[in-house]
Amino acid sequence: RLTSQGLRRLRCSVEFLCRPLKQPTWKIQYQSVLRFTTSLPDFIAEIQRDSDAGSVMSPAGCSHVNGFKVDNWKQNLRVIYQCFVWSGSVETRKRKAKSCVCHLCGAHLNRLHSCLHCVFFGCFSKKHIHDHAKNKRHNLAIDLLYGGIYCFVCQDYIYDKDMEQIAKEEQRKAWKLQGRSPPSLMHNVVQLRLGLINLGNTCFMNCIVQALTHTPLLRDFFLSDRHKCEMQSSSCLVCEMSQLFQEFYSGHRSPHIPFRLLHLVWTHARHLAGYEQQDAHEFLIAALDVLHRHCKDDNGKKANNPNHCSCIIDQIFTGGLQSDVTCQVCHGVSTTIDPFWDISLDLPGSSTPFWPLSPGSDGSVVNGDGHPSGATTLTDCLRRFTRPEHLGSSAKIKCSGCHSYQESTKQLTMKRLPIVACFHLKRFEHSAKLRRKITTYVSFPLELDMTPFMASSKESRMNGQYQQPVDSLNNENKYSLFAVVNHQGTLESGHYTTFIRQHKDQWFKCDDAIITKASIKDVLDSEGSTHKRTQ
Predict the structure, then answer these.
(1) Which domains are present in the chain?
(2) Which residues are the active-site residues?
(3) pLDDT in tens, 187-244
(4) What residue range is the signal peptide (predicted)?
């Protein structure tokens, strides 16, 4: 049975093309409305699981609303919808922002509900509104985000024809006050684009925020209200990101001013504080680190160990990098696997030697004969990243087989790929002699197959069985480009922009507050400093 609240969530999720995250092994796809209908049973089951206990409401409806329908109940309900749910005017939105906090913990998120019998706001996630209902015997409360009516006796969101009519009327009034017409499905799908105000050299933050807010699984997580904050202060970056996602997908057209996000970034990542130019890649790693620390895993424990964490950040962005160190004497191999959030790739033209690579006759990767004359490819960079490297006599490692220090080779491969893979091109070079930006053009594809760079592929090559890995047949290692971060300018002075793919063939250029349409050619011709890809 799909309740009125469930229907409201369903409509919202269809408009935003959301799909709940079921397990870490999900592969990201851009669902169309037709494809969404295939996941309807799973979505209904998810809505039902959101209820903290089994529903005991009778099929005929909830009889407990009769206790509320006395005196001026219609006028009282209209006031609540006008002031605290739909908030059509500027004044009511300001009032809602100031007044809608939990009367017990002071939080403004955690699915706030308002008691319909008295003036009380409480968290639904932390059950503060449940405690109030139990102590005061007030059976009904209204969800301040969706407008649904919850009955604590029935333990479910309820449908009442009269209440639903009032909700619709007040929502239409709010739309008129905002100069909006009732949104249609396809209209909203196209218009989900919001610019970000530059607060003074904050383009490095804006471009990464655009990429994160358009990451499908991250979007689904925040829009389904899955974060359960346990921090006592208002410094939780996950809570701020949750509010940011709500703003991004609210249908508002005005550019967003991310001042609270900037403040929290400065608070938790001191090296990014100030109005000097910063590096977008550094912000990405810092943001993922803070979000990771502020999340909790499925067992309710803080995610302090990145190797054993099930928080949403690790589910989406964490992969496993395998390092094989081979002794040149006994050929013994020492293997370690480390987690990673991104892959940083050297470019030709840097002080680090770079050779083009080509596949040998047996499928193995071998060095080319000369230096590259100009442009290179992302695949070349990945081949270099995963080729064997001789560590030299000055970096001998103690071999567990020889029990002595020996020369060795080291090779990096991908043991486990993340759902979203981030590739960072190391364009900024800092050394004792020089500081410069490497402007070498790097071409990159719309679709990328990571199978040749997997640890399993290396083992297949060693065994002479590299013709067609099983992984490649299952398309598990193939990625689709959905975001490209670019830096224009020099090392001392520059500006960041982002290309975002919102649908399969629709690209947009995000330049702070300005969002414009872009072609695939614009994207592929761009310089590129960070690429985000989904499986």
Answers:
(1) 4-186 (3.30.40.10), 193-306 (3.90.70.10), 318-423+447-473 (no CATH)
(2) 203, 495
(3) 444 444 689 999 988 999 999 999 999 998 898 888 877 777 877 677 899 999 988 9
(4) none
